[in-house]
Structure formats: structure tokens, C-alpha cells
């Protein structure tokens, strides 16, 4: 039975009642509102209330499941799980233009139109045609002013134009990103950190089981979901599908890059790049020496819906319906696999989607007319919400 913590009002009432009961035998009645004894009783109640509050706080931090802040970090550290820091976005192809032979010094500052800053990684000397290419790294803001770490804000699509902070003679101040500026991620939020920590407590390392690979992948900044597939590319291989939910520049959370193995893998046929490359390189020193690990992006499987009966619903309601369906796909989604004895096929039940829609206010009387069957993603496919038509 849970302990019922008394409220401040209850403590004050108890103290006053105790004072009055002790004094009543000496001919003293009820305490006056501003009497010294009533003030002492209320002060004592306030101190007791603070003590109860601190005991509540201690109880909260006493288990990994409810711990917060530095206590959560301490519990996680016991399992060698550490909060993912903010990471800076990078771009390997920034186009400079100007007079041939001019040099832009490494470390030069560049700025986006919204004020976000980057630095040039190394010197860039313009070729005979007056062009040159260089790499940049985002400047992370001070966590004291941006508690998210500001890593995700540094991501930007190809074609983004940056400006040199300090003009260089003979060099155009506008610099264009030929490739997307990617790889930036915010500080891991507390609930995601807690989920990884609890996974480590619940599943002790088994020398390379599925959970080990999943945990290693989730330790990479920006990676929010991971699924392990045994023998994805044949005997001796391990496949990992990854997602980057909520990271800007990643439509529907799908990673940006090409699937493959780590660049450190000897005689590898296909080297992963982008997000997949970051994960593959991070896993290389951790996984079993006999395994060849392939890091892949799931294939997008858009699922279209036709809903009747609520055509006149407000845009707010329709947006809530989409969000509810998205949440079902997020919770139940899994890349399709080859059915086996220990790996049943992936099925997303329509009943779960209907229940989610029904929970949205303003959807009473709706009918889901399409799809008509449960959703079964194909090999490597991950279901996402497509078009929603209202009839």
C-alpha cells in the first residue's frame, strides 16, 4: 500500500490540535489566530512538510526507473551508459568562388542567414577556374543559453548559402553547400536516455546478441530506433536498420546516406556513408570479430487512408488523426523480415489504428474504409503515414 503523504494543511491542523489537547487540561481553550503557540505549530508543520518533500525526492532517485538529472546519469554510469552529447553538423563539399590562387584560411567563420555559425576545417585555395571546395563544421552554442545543445539546428539542405564572417580579398562572401549539412544532433532527452539505461539493466551483455547491437546503435548521436536482422547479407553478417526520428533534414526520420559496412572493414564491397556510415564506424570496434555488420535504412512504405463520416472535421482534428496514426506506426513499426520460427512476420493491426483514431476528440462516427486488411510490410519496409482522404 503506498504511503499517504500528509499535505501542509493537514500537518498544520495536526500540530494545532496537538497543542490544544496538551494545553486543554490546564484550562486553555482554542489557540488564537495569531498566538505564539499557533505560529510555532505552523512553523513546525512547514519544516515537517519540507522533510516529507525531501524524502519524496530521495525515494524518486532511489531506483533507475524514476531517477532524474544527475541521479539518472549516476545509475546509467553503473552500466556504462552515458548521455549522448550534442554533435556538430558537417558538410564535406562547400563551394567557394573568386580569383584564382586566393586562399581562405582554415578556421574562418561562416554564418547562415539565421545567424547559426560554422567554421572552415582546413585551408581552401581557389583553382585556376576560380573555384574551390572545402569542409565545414558547425559551432555548437553554449548549453547555458541553449539547453538542447543546438546540434540539430545546424543541419541544412544542399544549396544552403553561408556567408564569410570576415571578407577575404578576391573571394566571394557567399558560399554554397553542394551536399547537405548533416550529422548534427541535440543532447539526448532524458526519457530516451532513461530507455537506453533501462535496456542495459534489463538485458545484460551476451557477447553479441541482438540487444547488444541495438544498444550500440542507439548510443550513436541522432539514432533513435534500431532493429537487428541476423544473416541479412548471408552467413557471417549482421544487419541493423536505423532511424533518426525528429532530426531535421531526415524526412519521416529515415537516415540520410547509403547502406553498407564500416570504412574500417577490410576488403568491404560497399562502404556505408552518412548516418549509416556513422553507425557502422561506431560499431566496428565493439562487435564480434567474425561478424560483418551492415547498417541500412528501411525502405519507406507509405500507407494511404480513406476515412468517411468526418469529412467536415476541422483541420485541427485532421492533424490530430494523422498524429495518432503516426504514433501507431512509431510504436508498432518494424522493418519487414523473412518469417522464421523465431521471427514472426511484422503485422500492424488495423484495430490499433482505428482505436487511435477513435481516441481523437471530434472523430465520433468515423469509418476507416481503406485499407481493409492489416498492414504487412515487405522485406526491409517500414510503414509510414501516406495520404489521408476524407469522404
UniProtKB/TrEMBL annotation:
Residues 312-390 form the Baseplate J-like C-terminal domain. Residues 95-184 form the Baseplate protein J-like barrel domain. It comes from the Bacteria. Residues 205-296 form the Baseplate J-like central domain. It holds the Pfam family Baseplate_J. Belongs to the Mu gp47/PBSX XkdT family. This is Phage baseplate protein.
